[in-house]
Amino acid sequence: MIVTFPIETADITRANEGLQNINWHILGQTYVPKSYTQDSFSWHATFPDGTFVPPHIHPDQDEYLYILEGRLDFMLDGRDESATPGDTVRLPRGKPHGIFNKSGQTVKTLFWVSPAQRLYDLFWALHNMKEQKPEEVIALSAQYNIHFLPPP
After folding, report:
1. Which domain covers residue 67, as residue numbers?
2. How confident is the model at residue 106 (pLDDT cuts 50, 70, 90)?
3. Quick count: other Cβ atoms within 10 Å of Cβ 33?
């Protein structure tokens, strides 16, 4: 499968706006894409209290988060950590990680991955699911090389 990526242009993606006014609703969170090229993909995420991304692996992408507001808890390669505003979270390719908002408040963060691979397309596919049932999310994600881990 050949994947084509947009050509980056010099421009500004404004606060509270996504590329092409896109807002995805995935696993109870809102994702707003900010930049997208072959080399990198970034998005702003809003995590309401109690939402999470189950432990998973990106075999061929490094993922990063910069915490803007609130506190997120993480499972990072088998250990528990938390991050607050100003912290950068590094999630190297192939390392299992999960992201959890147990803070009692809404959390806002900037995510980015490198290289972009097909994550942008996965987010479209997840957003467009009629109902995001766990088993269907897991199966669909695997098709895009994002692998969720079984519960402990």
Report:
1. 19-117
2. very high
3. 21
